[in-house]
Amino acid sequence: CSANGSPGPSAAAAASAKTSAAGGKRSSSDVQPLQAQIQDDLQKASERKRALEAESATKIEPDWLKAVKKVQSNASVALEKARESAEASKESARATAPAARAAAEDEADKERAERTLGERLLPREGVPALGELRAPTSIR
């Protein structure tokens, strides 16, 4: 095996050299070990490939996974704050509604009283207005 985990000279190259030495003919006893060696080489290469993919996935995954988790966390915090704010607004509205209603009723009562007073102060037909009152001529 070389330093990177791949096998050294391939089994196929070794078999080719044997075949050339034997005059170009292969015996079944030569083919079976060659097939076993090729199968073993393929399995090792496949395992190495899976190991490299897993290694690269673990290197890449934490970065994007951290980003996703951070976004989810921020969204959860924002949602919770929005819920709290909405609840506080509801509570505030419940607390201030009676006072606002009472203030509106007071304002309406005040306006009614001013209108009534104004109507009383308005001159009626045959009744002099406040500024027009004079002492009877007999008193003068």
What does this protein structure show overall?
Residues 41-59, 81-93, 109-123 have a biased composition (Basic and acidic residues). Residues 1-26 have a biased composition (Low complexity). Residues 1-59, 81-140 are annotated as: Disordered. Residues 30-40 have a biased composition (Polar residues). This protein is mainly alpha-helical and 140 residues long. It has one domain (11-115). It has 2 helices and no strands. The longest helix has 94 residues, at 28-121. The radius of gyration is 51 Å and the shape is rod-shaped.
Percent range of helical residues:
over 70%
Shape: rod-shaped
What is the SS-derived class?
A: mainly alpha
Major β-sheet, in short? none
Mean pLDDT: 76
Structural domains: how many? 1
Mind telling me the C-alpha Rg? 51 Å
Offer a concise description of the structure.
The chain is mostly helical. Helix content is 75%, strand content 0%.
Keywords, please?
mainly alpha; 75% helix; 140 residues; single chain
Please give the structural blueprint.
Blueprint lengths: L10 H11 L6 H94 L19
Helix pairs in contact: 1-2
